[in-house]
Amino acid sequence: MGNHSDGTKAQGSAVVTSSEESEEQFRNPGLPPHRPRLTDVDPKRAKGAERQVILLFVLSMLGSLLFGSHTSASQLKVIFTMLTTPSPPANCSCRTCC
Question: What's residue 32's pLDDT?
C-alpha cells in the first residue's frame, strides 16, 4: 500500500496521512463548550429524574394490565382468528372460502 517492504513509498497510494502542514484540514466549527445538565451536577435532581423514569415504566405496566383486563376472551378469540385466518383471493366470488 503506502509503504513497501523495501522502504520506498508508492506514488499513487490510497492511504492518506495527516500532518500539521496539510492544506486539507477541517476548520474548527465553533461549537459551544459542553454544559453539564442539572442531573449531572445535583444528586437530588438526579434522584428525581430516576424516580420520574420509574414512574413512567410503572404507568406503562399498569396501562398494559388495564387494557388486557378489559379485553374479554371472546374479543381475543376474534382478534386471534383474524390474524391467523388466511385472506381469500382477490377474485373470489364464492362464500365458502370467505
Answer: 87
